[in-house]
Design brief:
CATH superfamily: Peptide deformylase
Bound molecules: ligand K2U, nickel (II) ion
Strand content: 25-35%
CATH architecture: Alpha-Beta Complex
Number of helices: 3
Number of domains: 1
Strand order of the largest sheet: 1-2-3-6-7
Structural class: alpha+beta
Number of strands: 8
Radius of gyration: 17 Å
Amino acid sequence: MILMKDIIREGNPLLREKSVNVELPLSNEDEEILLSMIEYIDNSIDEEIAEKYDLRAAVGIAAPQIGILKKMFVIYLTDEQGNEHFYPLVNPKIVSYSDEQIYLPGGEGCLSVDREVTGLIHRARRITADAHLYDPETRTLKHVILKLKNYPALVFQHEYDHLFGTLFPDRINKEKPLFVPENSKPVVFPKYEETADK
Ligand code: K2U
Ligand code: NI
């Protein structure tokens, strides 16, 4: 299983390298890498396992973060409408970006960045991506065109950046880190009312 010690940190030149396309059909070795990244996310959001192994929670992880310079990443998150998004992807390529942008009001984090970084990262609010989507149930890959918006689109772009050696601090406006362009809107999650115990 992937542990925090296996996660490559900012400062390691590997994180700044460009990843290469994965040869298809998926080799057993590459399939195991993908499965290990799926397992990391599952473990990181399991309170007991995360505490036992001191794992940082993650909504995504990219192969370069475990030192493998191949175009693979996994996303698993619940969006603003409460819908689940699970995308273990091979050879993703963003083919279109909207002009409208979005950002996380609290900024971003990264398993590979061990410091608090203040600033906003403005990303495309809608993207279209060409990729191969892995299904761990059937252990098959299928070619898909993904159209994503808002939080899933934002997380996708964060992971996609890792495939090009880009980290989120690179994208913060150095002069005005909290600047919000007129075409950028915050990702807003609904407030879940705490139901008072009757
Ligand atoms: O790539 C990574 O290091 C995983 C990041 C992904 C991320 C994407 C967009 C914005 C922030 C982070 C980790 O998930 S960072 C921890 C985290 C966990 C839950 C929600 C947001 C961030
Ligand atoms: Ni990251």
